[in-house]
């Protein structure tokens, strides 16, 4: 399996400490306050709630959506809905995409973002994280729609993973996911800080959503997850306030790194940079109780999420100061 952030048990096992600041997963550290559940939430089988899908369609602006147990479920299932195809995955990006397309008989290859336009005519499926995880790179909306039309004309797909698009949806194509060949993935885990709920949505044409629903089977999303997700998607006041707070925090993180000579890129939820000594920096942070995301392959680098409070910001600044001094 590809490596992921959020693996604090590994951190505790490797470094023998419990006072961790977890910056490894790029989640909103001020998560949505889950409401009280109905008395029978843990008792009843989880019937799909049409009101949840309605709330998702309204929030994401999509004409049709399917609720899934996190977008990971869709990432694993979509390659099983096509015959063997030539697949291009934008690189670097969330490693699960390339991993699962390669598992099911497809000829999958990774192509740098700057070279995607030249690769569209040579594939039947293109997968793009937009904005990208981990670099924050974004493909303009108009370009994505042009690629989707090109692929659709020959029965292909453009899969756009918009897991980090909530803080700046300027390039989102979720509203056009009723068109042939366009599939959009959206996550409740990142912006809402509810990764443990395991809830995501797929936007696409109804026939493709029906096939995906059939493949995934019954009771995909738990009853509690549906209740919490619906409340979060409907809470417009929380969303507005949180979006503004995250934009300020994201700029603060970028500026903190810049003050130490690090030119990061990313979104309001994380910063990433190519690091000459990523293993050493990862270890340096870990020995100070700060767990960051290490990228060992491809464009080797480090990704940091947002600190949860002022004490954590101070610890991060101190650790960066020490790293800067030791690196001179």
Mean pLDDT: 96
Q: How would you characterize the largest beta sheet?
A: 7 strands, mixed
Q: Kindly provide the radius of gyration, computed on alpha-carbon positions and rounded to a whole number of angstroms.
A: 20 Å
Find the structural class using helix and strand composition.
Answer: alpha/beta
* Overall shape: globular
Q: What is the topology, as strand order, of the major beta sheet? A: 2-8-7-6-5-3-4
Secondary structure: helix percent: 25-40%
What's the β-strand tally? Answer: 13
Strand content: 15-25%
Enumerate the spans where pLDDT stays under 50 for 5 or more consecutive residues: none
Count of alpha/pi helices: 10
What pattern of helices and strands is seen along the backbone? HEHEHEHEEHEEEHHHEEHEEEH
Instruction: Note the gap between the termini.
Output: 37 Å
3D structure, described in words:
With 328 residues, this protein is an alpha/beta fold. 37% of the residues lie in helices and 17% in strands. The chain is built from ten helices and 13 strands. It has helices spanning 8-15, 50-60, 71-77, 95-103, 141-152, 206-216, 223-234, 236-258, 278-286, 310-327; strands at residues 21-22, 65-68, 86-91, 107-112, 125-129, 157-161, 182-187, 200-203, 265-267, 270-274, 290-291, 293-295, 301-305. Helix 2 runs parallel beside helix 7 and helix 3 packs parallel to helix 4. The radius of gyration is 20 Å and the shape is globular. The chain starts with 7 loop residues before the first helix and ends with a helix.
């Amino acid at each position: 399996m590809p490596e992921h952030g959020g693996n604090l048990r590994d951190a505790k096992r490797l470094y023998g400490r419990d006072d961790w600041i977890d910056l490894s997963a790029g989640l909103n550290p001020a998560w949505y306050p889950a409401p009280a559940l109905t008395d029978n939430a843990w008792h009843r089988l989880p019937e799909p709630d049409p009101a949840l899908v309605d709330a998702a369609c309204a929030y994401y602006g999509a004409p049709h959506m399917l609720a899934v147990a996190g977008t990971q479920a869709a990432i694993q299932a979509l390659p099983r809905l096509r015959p063997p195809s030539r697949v291009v995955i934008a690189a670097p990006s969330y490693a699960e995409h390339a991993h699962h397309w390669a598992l099911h008989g497809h000829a999958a290859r990774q192509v740098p973002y700057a070279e995607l336009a030249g690769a569209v005519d040579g594939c039947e499926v293109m997968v793009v994280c937009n904005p990208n995880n981990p670099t924050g790179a974004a493909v303009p909306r108009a370009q994505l729609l042009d690629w989707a039309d090109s692929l659709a004309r020959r029965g292909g797909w453009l899969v756009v993973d918009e897991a980090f698009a909530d803080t700046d949806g300027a390039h989102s194509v979720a509203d056009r996911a009723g068109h042939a060949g366009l599939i959009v993935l959206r996550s409740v885990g990142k912006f809402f800080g509810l990764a443990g709920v395991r809830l995501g949505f797929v936007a696409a044409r109804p026939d493709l959503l029906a096939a995906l629903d059939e493949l995934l089977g019954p009771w995909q999303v738990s009853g509690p997850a549906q209740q919490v997700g619906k409340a979060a998607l409907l809470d417009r006041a929380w969303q507005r306030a949180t979006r503004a707070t995250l934009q300020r925090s994201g700029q603060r993180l970028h500026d903190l790194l810049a003050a130490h000579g690090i030119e990061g890129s990313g979104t309001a939820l994380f910063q990433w940079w190519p690091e000459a000594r990523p293993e050493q920096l990862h270890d340096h942070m870990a020995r100070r109780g700060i767990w960051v995301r290490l990228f060992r392959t491809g464009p080797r680098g480090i990704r940091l999420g947002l600190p949860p409070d002022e004490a954590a910001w101070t610890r991060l600044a101190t650790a960066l100061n020490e790293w800067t001094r030791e690196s001179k």
